[in-house]
Design brief:
Layout (H helix, E strand, L loop, with lengths): L12 H57 L1 H5 L9 E5 L8 E11 L2 E10 L9 E11 L13 E3 L4 E4 L1 E6 L16 E4 L7 E4 L2 E2 L2 E4 L5 H4 E4 L2 E2 L3 E3 L20 E6 L2 E3 L2 E10 L5 E3 L3 E5 L3 E3 L4 E2 L8 E5 L5 E5 L2 E17 L7 E14 L6 E6 L16 E8 L5 E2 L3
Parallel strand pairs: 5-8, 5-25, 6-9, 6-25, 7-10, 7-26, 8-11, 9-12, 10-13, 11-14, 15-17, 16-18, 17-19, 17-20, 18-21, 19-22, 20-23, 22-24, 23-24, 24-25, 25-26
Antiparallel strand pairs: 1-2, 2-3, 3-4, 4-27, 27-28
Length: 415
């Protein structure tokens, strides 16, 4: 007779099965967790790689802009490389910062190599940190495009600047009307002067900087009597030069001829006047961006100018000759006045009213005079720095001839 199994012989079988199941579940759990973790890290690396690539492209764009706008960047060919510069970006897809650096290397007189590197996040110990590199070869043409016509609130081309009972400050019309928090000392008055006392301040306040010729001593050129300068006295940048607007002959569309101009309403466009004479209740009203070329004198003694949204960039007046400019009246002047060969006078009216200038002015000499009852006020619109006119003869100053993502086998080329 065969022996029969008893219940005692099967003790521990269920426990063994449970152990085996637990082991298999643990193995699969660990494998699943590891795969999930790898997927998360891969997604993070991919996201950072995209951000790093975008940052590197920003570096290329920044360097191209430098080559397109800076005479120094374009003309320095003695150095093997320019110093790297790093800026920080704040991508919306990542709470950490990404950044880029770039360097520009001369290849020939008209060719530059740009190497830009982007990284995300921008600290070396960050998890999932990625780098991306782009190399671009850029072909230069000459000359570089003009800078801003109105880099400074008041600029004179080398002769006297006299401010008497005048206040100067800055604001940005793109951020709303002048006043309250929209008032700053970020602007400057400047002159290409070298003579002693060429910039004469009397009972005036300059909320900003005062700049003179690069070879001059600002402490001797600037004379301040009972006056305050909240910024610094310094010199103009070595590579800065006063640009010029397009000439009438270079305009693709000829300006509208108006002859002698008085009070008028002008739609957006370009106009040509033999002179501007405003008096009494006359004013210039623009309904869009207006540019006026003037051959003769400009006498604004009426109600001033009115521009859309009170943004001075909507009116540019270019005085093409040497005739004088006089702005005086009960109204406010909004606009940019470019008269590098003219003597410009801005003052409060004889009744002690008005005398408010919003915008910027370029002149040969500039005189501002207020009264005890009504000091003259100049409010430099910082947005005027961004409203200079492109010169039609200076298009395509930098062209890309080759483009490569350095951590990829893909080449991209453009012209």
């Amino acid at each position: 007779m065969k022996p029969t199994k008893t219940l005692a012989d099967e003790r521990g079988f269920v426990l063994l099965v449970v152990y085996v199941i637990v082991i298999f579940v643990s193995i699969f759990s660990v494998a699943f967790f590891g795969r999930h973790q790898a997927a998360v890290q891969a997604a993070e690396r991919y996201q950072n790689q995209v951000l790093a690539f975008n940052a590197a492209e920003s570096g290329i764009d920044f360097a191209l802009r430098e080559l397109a706008t800076s005479l120094t960047r374009r003309s320095e060919t003695a150095h093997a490389e320019y110093n790297s510069q790093e800026l920080t970006l704040y991508p919306s897809l990542n709470s950490a910062k990404s950044s880029f650096s770039y360097k520009i290397s001369p290849v020939s007189d008209s060719m530059r190599r740009i190497d830009a590197t982007g990284c995300a996040p921008n600290y070396a110990t960050a998890r999932g940190r990625q780098n991306s590199g782009i190399t671009v070869y850029a072909q230069l043409s000459t000359p570089p495009p003009s800078g801003s016509l109105f880099e400074y609130g008041v600029y004179t081309t080398g002769d006297a600047m006299n401010l008497s009972k005048t206040s100067f400050d800055s604001y940005n019309s793109g951020q709303g009307a002048y006043g309250a928090s929209n008032v700053s000392n970020a602007g400057a008055i400047a002159s290409d002067s070298t003579g002693i006392g060429d910039i004469d301040l009397s009972n005036s306040t300059v909320n900003g900087n005062v700049l003179v010729n690069t070879s001059a001593n600002p402490n001797t050129v600037v004379s301040a009597t009972n006056s305050t300068i909240t910024g610094t006295k310094g010199t103009l940048a070595n590579d800065w030069a006063l640009p010029a607007p397009p000439t009438i002959a270079s305009l693709v569309t000829p300006p509208t001829e108006l002859g002698s101009c008085g009070g008028m309403t002008l739609a957006a466009g370009t106009y040509h006047c033999s002179e501007i004479l405003l008096s009494g209740h006359e004013r210039i009203i623009t309904t869009g961006a207006v540019k006026i070329y003037v051959d003769g004198s400009v006498q604004i003694t009426g109600q001033g100018t009115t521009v859309p949204n009170n943004q001075p960039g909507n009116l540019h007046i270019y005085v093409t000759g040497t005739a004088s400019v006089n702005i005086q009246g009960n109204g406010s002047f909004y606009g940019g006045l470019y008269a590098p060969n003219s003597d410009v006078v801005f003052q409060s009216s004889s009744s002690g009213k008005g005398g408010v200038f919003f915008g910027a002015v370029v002149a040969k000499t500039f005189t501002s005079a207020g009264t005890n009852k009504q000091p003259a006020a100049i409010h430099f619109d910082l947005s005027m720095k961004e409203t200079s006119d492109p010169n039609p003869s200076q298009e395509n100053t930098v062209g890309i001839t080759a483009w490569q993502e350095m951590n990829s086998l893909a080449w991209g080329a453009g012209s």
